[in-house]
């Protein structure tokens, strides 16, 4: 279901010991093993998190039978319960999506619909299980719309209990009506690399703060 990055070594100069985890849900519509620009940018963000003490896992949603619905478990054959356990086990959730017809991909929207069930799931003190978890977004596409997509995703993630850091989106959009894919760029544009590094630093910082000082019961 997933692949895990190597842990940050405490001996690496300038790197923190790994004490946080991240999950990247990739919304490409292309099944594995075909390459994906959305997954590439998601993995680049995961790699940028590594020096901040974050190890991570990537799940390409289209490879799994995530049933439609708004329940924690939609019954036989539903892949979401296993993915949900990874969401709940992680300190950071990253949604990596392409732009299709000006919208997040359908599989990312389905993941958001399934996360709606978390509004009914609380701990012993009445807090959502997603409280204290931090979310970030990665967007790729060949048209304008990265800000629109991130606005949609951040609102939905906030609604179901995730916390959004400052400047928590990295993205690349090509020329309108163009045919260049992000994965075909060599090298990666410096503006994307620096933005990804900022997202990683802010996300790890906030996740560590919330892990050490959880939200109070309401």
From TrEMBL:
User: InterPro entries given for it?
Assistant: Flavoprotein-like_sf, FMN_Rdtase-like_dom
Domain (NADPH-dependent FMN reductase-like) spans: 23-169
Q: A single Pfam family, by name?
A: FMN_red
Please give the superkingdom of this protein's source: Bacteria
**GO MF annotations for this entry?**
oxidoreductase activity
This protein's name: Multimeric flavodoxin WrbA
**Which species is the source of this protein?**
Cellulomonas marina
């Amino acid at each position: 279901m997933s692949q895990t990055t190597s842990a940050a070594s405490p001996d690496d100069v300038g790197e923190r010991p790994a004490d946080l985890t991240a999950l990247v849900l990739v919304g490409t519509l292309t099944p594995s093993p075909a390459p994906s620009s959305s997954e590439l940018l998601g993995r680049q963000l995961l790699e940028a998190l590594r020096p901040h003490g974050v190890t991570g896992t990537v799940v390409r949603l289209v490879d799994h039978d995530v049933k439609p619905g708004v329940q924690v478990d939609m019954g036989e054959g539903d892949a979401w319960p296993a993915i949900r356990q990874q969401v709940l086990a992680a300190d950071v959730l990253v949604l990596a999506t392409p732009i299709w017809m000006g919208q997040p991909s359908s599989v990312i929207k389905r993941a958001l619909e399934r996360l709606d069930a978390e509004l009914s799931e609380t701990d012993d003190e009445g807090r959502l299980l997603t409280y204290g978890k931090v979310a970030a977004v990665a967007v790729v596409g060949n048209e304008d719309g990265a800000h629109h997509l991130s606005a949609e995703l951040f609102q939905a993630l906030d609604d179901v209990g995730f916390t959004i850091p400052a400047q928590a989106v990295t993205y690349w959009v090509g020329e309108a009506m163009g045919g260049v894919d992000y994965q075909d760029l060599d090298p990666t544009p410096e503006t994307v690399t620096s933005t990804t590094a900022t997202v990683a630093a802010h996300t790890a910082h906030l996740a560590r703060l919330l892990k050490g000082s959880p939200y109070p019961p309401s």
